[in-house]
Amino acid sequence: MSETQGGGSDRPGVIHARPVPHPGRWVALVAILVLVAMMISSFMTNERWNFPKALEIMQQAPVIEGLLKGTIAGTLGGMAIGVVGGVLIAVLRLSQNPILRFVSFAYTWFFRGIPRLVLLAMIGSGVGYLYRRVDFGVPFGQQFAQWLGLSQDFTFFTLNVNQFSSTLLAGIVGLGLSEAAYMAEIARAGILSVDKGQAEAAQALGMNRGITLRRIVLPQAMRVIVPPTGNETIAMVKDTSLLSAIPVITELFYQTSAIGSRTLLIMPAFVAVTAWYLIVGSVLMVGQFYLERYFGRGFGMTRRQARKAQAKRVARPAGMGGA
Amino acid sequence: MTETTSTSRQRTGAGDAPPLVRAVNVMKSFHGNEVLKGIDLTVHRGEVVVLLGPSGSGKTTFLRCINQLETIDGGRIWVDGELMGYREDDKGHLHHLTDKQVAAQRRDIGMVFQRFNLFPHKTALENLIEAPMQVKGISKKEATARAHELLEHVGLADKPSAYPGALSGGQQQRVAIARALAMDPKLMLFDEPTSALDPELVGEVLRVMRDLAKAGMTMIVVTHEMGFAREVADHVVFMDAGVVCEEGTAREVIGNPQQERTKSFLRRMRSEEQQERQDEQDLEQA
Ligand SMILES: Nc1ncnc2c1ncn2[C@@H]1O[C@H](COP(=O)(O)OP(=O)(O)O)[C@@H](O)[C@H]1O
Ligand SMILES: [Mg+2]
C-alpha cells in the first residue's frame, strides 16, 4: 500500500524491456517468401497445372456425389461405428469378466492386424461368396425346426449378403469395424487416465457401475479421447478412398482420377482431389477445436480466458502505487 | 440441518436403541498383508466417533470397508441393522450382493475424501445434483433447490457455477461435504478431510463439520485435529497396526491415555497441535 509517486521515486517501476532480437526469423521469412513467389510463378506460367480446369473438375456431378456419399458419409458412418464400437470394446477390455476381456482382446488383435484394403476387398467379394444370405433368429433354429418337424423355423429376417456386400453401406461397416479396433485402444487409454478417486466418489454416492461410467468416467475420459480421435477421423477421410476395393466407386478419388484419365487432364484431377481432401480436413479441424473445448470444461482455462486474465493483469499491475 | 442448530444433539438413549453402525471382528488383508486384524466398533445414532492412529494403522481401510469400497475378509459390518455387502440365507451361508444392491446400501452413507474427489467436469451445483438425480430419480428442479440450500449451509451460496478447479482446497472440501449431504445420508464418513489443506483453510472445513455434528449427524471421522476431537467427539478410538488399541471418551483417550502406544502417538501429535491451534486462533481473529 505504499504511496510512492511515479516519477520522484527511486523504487523500480513498470518494466518496458526491449525484446530479444531474432535475426534468424527474418532470414527464414525472406527465404520462404522467395520460395512461395517461385511456386506462384510456376502455377501461372506452366499451363499443365491448369487450375481453371481443376476447379471445373471439383464441381462435376460425379465428383460431388463421390465426395458426399463415399468420402463424407463414409467418414461419418465409419467413425460413428468406430467410436461407439471402440468405447464398447474398451469397456469390455476393462471389465471384470475374463471372457469379455478375451473377446475384446481377440477383436482388437484381428481387426488391427489386417490392412483395411484387404478387409474391404474380402467383404466385397469373399463374404458374399461364402454366405449368400444370413438369417437372423434363434441360433440353430432351423436345425431344431427340421428335427422337430415344425413349419416355423425361428428366423426373424434374412439379409441377402450377396447383394449387401457390394454396397456402400457394407464398405462403411467394414471401415467402422476396422476403426473400432483402433478407437478401442484410444478409449481404453482415456478411461485409464481418469483418476480412480472419481469412480470411488461416484460409487460412494450410490451410483452403480453403469451410471459411474456413463456420467463420471467417460465424460472425463473424452478429454483424452478427442484429440487422437480427430487424428483418426482425418485418417478415415483418406481411407474412404479404399472403398473402391469393395468395389464402390461413388467415392472422391475414384471419380476424379476417372475423369483425369478419360480427359487426359491428369494433374488438374489430382489438384481437384487434393483440394477437396484439404477442405474436408480443415472443416474437421474446426469441429475438433469445439469438441476439445467442450470436453475440456472445468480443466484449466481456455486460451481465450487465459488471454483475458493476462489482459487484466497488465491493466492493473500489482504493487504499482500511484504510478 | 437448520431445524436443530440449537444445542440439542439427537442422542437417543444409548442403551435401548440399536446402534447405527456395528462392526464386529473386521479383518482385511492386501496380498497377505494383514491391515485390519479384527476391528470392533459400535456407533450410536447422533454420535461422533473420532478415529486416531499413526499413518498406516488401517484407518482409511476401515472407513472404506464400511461403505464397501473394499470387501472385508472376515467379520461383519451392519449399518442400521443391515448386513453390508452380503445376504445371509436360512442356513447361515453368506451370498455376495449384486452391484446394484451394494450401490443401494451406499446411498445412505456419505463419504468425504482426503483429496476431495469432486467431479472436475461439473460445476459445484452439478456436483451436488448429480447423484440425487441419477440415483434417487429426484427432479432437476427439486435437486437444484436442495443443492442451493446445502451450498448456503457450507458458506458457498455464491459459488454454484464455479468449477472445482477454480475453488480453493477448503472450498472444494466444503462442496464435497455438501455433495455427500445431498443424498441425505444416515451416516457420514470423513477420511482426514483437512490434511490436504493449507493450514489457514482447515478452520472453515472443521466449522462445517462441527455444525453438522451439532445438527445430530452420525459421523465417523479420521483426523489428526486434536482440538476438533476433544471438542466434538463423543467417542475416540485409537488404532494401531490394524487393531483398536484404546477407546473411550475424548477426555479418557486424549486427556489420560493408558496404553504406551497411545501416549507416544499423542506426544508426537502435541507439537503439531500447538502450531495448528495458533493458526486457528489467528483465523478466528482475522
Ligand atoms: N489397495 C491397497 N493395496 C495394498 N495395500 C494397501 C492398499 N490400501 C492400503 N494398503 C496398506 O494398508 C495399510 C493401511 O493403510 P491405510 O488404511 O491407508 O492406513 P491409514 O489410513 O491409517 O494411514 C498400509 O500399510 C497400506 O500400505
Ligand atoms: Mg489414511
From TrEMBL, chain A:
Q: Boundaries of each ABC transmembrane type-1 domain copy?
A: 68-288
Its annotated compartments are: Cell membrane; Membrane
Keywords from UniProt, A to Z, are: Amino-acid transport, Membrane, Transmembrane, Transmembrane helix, Transport
Membrane topology annotation: Multi-pass membrane protein
Q: Which Pfam families match?
A: BPD_transp_1
Report the transmembrane regions from the record: 26-45, 66-89, 109-131, 264-291
> What highest taxon heads this organism's lineage?
Bacteria
List the CDD domains.
Answer: TM_PBP2 (cd06261)
Concerning PANTHER family, the annotation shows: L-CYSTINE TRANSPORT SYSTEM PERMEASE PROTEIN TCYL (PTHR30614:SF0), MEMBRANE COMPONENT OF AMINO ACID ABC TRANSPORTER (PTHR30614)
**Family as reported in the entry's similarity comment:** Belongs to the binding-protein-dependent transport system permease family.
Q: What is the protein's given name?
A: Amino acid ABC transporter permease
What is the phylogenetic placement of the source species in the record? Bacteria, Bacillati, Actinomycetota, Actinomycetes, Micrococcales
